[in-house]
Specification:
Layout: H1 7-14, H2 16-21, H3 24-36, H4 54-58, H5 75-102, H6 109-116, H7 122-146, E1 180-182, H8 185-189, E2 208-211, H9 234-265, H10 271-295, H11 354-357, H12 359-368, H13 377-391
Antiparallel strand pairs: 1-2
Helix pairs in contact: 1-6, 5-7, 5-9, 5-13, 6-9, 7-10, 9-10, 9-12, 12-13
The structure holds fe (ii) ion (FE2) (2 copies).
Length: 397
């Protein structure tokens, strides 16, 4: 359900003055507490999770569904989980940036207010999504360690700049959110009866190119400004456009996870690895469904029509087009072609082919998104290698 809250309601929840006046160390601690609020088991866990004692998580009850299997992973299963761990570290990095600025303890009140124009619960959802990605990355690395495999460590590549806006921690990042091309083809794809795995190419309903998804600095988006609907001046329009871009980027990222995990699961050798991939993948799909719903609020009344004064990007009123490929509340997957065109259409996650939704396709999509803008050749070399190893796995039952 769509709710609206004003700036005052948001700032009373997030305690902006506290969030912006204390030291960086305090900020890190507060941020972290916010992230782990829902998940007490994560308390005290390092962000990358690579140093976690695997035994602490995994030597639990030795019976039934709660036990872990003994023995080593097959080469293929290890490759599948390594790529999943890399993808989750990437996801966690970008979600942490959103959470610092726009989560429940986020430090940028105007950004939070602009996001809340999409839904009054956006800050909570952002914090919870961040929390989930951190848990995915930590679990996958700990599981690899428990099986005698090396965890994935991308810390050497946390080199990209942070936002200079109030609320962002000044630290190195794996991912860039300051200038994004957001592929919106998922919006049309899930309203369409066609499936990319049958060769169909679908376009998004409009184009988001070279647009920030988080405030860049306080100069053009003052952190204390109100965010009325519609925006009343250029600075408010700029911040609303940034929040709207974020709303669509959330769904873009999570639909990638929704397709990736089925492609990985299909190749799993052990039943336990299959269970891990299906179980985490289900949460990626849950995230996508949520963000799909929220994004539509940026392109329907009363918010539709916002134009970024610096980039010229306009968020149209998609319901005014009177087309089922655009209608904003058609968020549940339409039945589509699946397996064979001679079979009845079926409502499914798509694509799920390695070519269109696998590991290499995921890295390619993130690269085209400009998520890795400024990353080193060594970074691309590593993630591409991990992706190729995962995609080359074949089912080996
Ligand atoms: Fe995840
Ligand atoms: Fe995710």
């Amino acid at each position: 359900m769509k709710e609206k809250t004003g700036l005052s309601a948001v700032t009373s929840e997030t305690n902006l003055s506290e969030a912006t006046s204390s030291s960086t160390d305090d900020g890190v601690q507060r941020h972290w507490q916010g992230v782990v609020k829902r998940r007490s088991f994560l308390k005290g866990l390092g962000i990358a999770g690579a140093t976690l004692s695997a035994g602490a998580l995994l030597s639990t009850e030795a019976h039934g569904q709660t036990s872990t299997s003994s023995g080593k992973l097959s080469k293929g299963d290890a490759a599948l989980l390594r790529f999943a761990a890399a993808a989750e570290l990437i996801e966690a990095d970008l979600w942490q940036q959103y959470n610092e600025l726009g989560g429940v303890r986020g430090g940028n009140a105007a950004y939070i207010a602009a996001l809340s124009n999409l839904d009054g619960d956006m800050a909570q959802y952002i914090s919870d999504n961040t929390d989930d990605e951190l848990s995915h990355a930590a679990f996958l690395n700990a599981y690899l360690i428990s099986k005698g495999e090396a965890p994935v460590d991308l810390d050497a590549f946390r080199t990209l700049p942070s936002s200079q806006a109030t609320g962002a921690l000044n630290t190195g990042r794996l991912t860039n959110l300051l200038r994004l091309n957001v592929d919106l083809s998922w919006y049309t794809r899930y309203r369409s009866t066609q499936n990319p795995d049958f060769g169909t190419k679908l376009k998004g309903p409009f184009v988001i190119e070279n647009q920030p998804a988080i405030p860049v600095s306080d100069d053009d988006t003052p952190p204390g400004q109100p965010q009325p609907v519609p925006p009343a001046n250029a600075q408010q329009s700029r911040m609303q456009a940034i929040a709207n871009t974020a709303g669509f980027h959330f769904a873009f990222i999570e639909q990638g996870g929704a397709s990736l995990y089925p492609t990985l699961a299909f190749k799993a050798n052990s039943a336990e690895v299959l269970r891990i991939l299906i179980s985490i993948g289900g949460v990626e799909i849950d995230h996508f469904g949520l963000w799909h719903d929220k994004a539509g609020n940026a392109v329907s009344q009363p918010l539709a029509g916002v134009t970024d004064p610096e980039t010229g990007l306009t968020f149209p009123d998609l319901n005014a087009l009177h087309s089922e490929l655009d209608q904003t509340n058609l968020i549940l997957a339409e039945p589509c072609e699946f397996i064979s065109k001679s079979l009845p259409q079926c409502s499914v996650i798509r694509p799920t082919s390695t070519k269109n939704g696998g590991a290499v396709a995921t890295i390619k999509a993130f690269t085209e998104d400009l998520l890795f803008l400024g990353q080193s050749p060594a970074f691309f070399s590593l993630v591409t290698q991990l992706a190729q190893e995962a995609d080359s796995v074949r089912r080996g039952f």
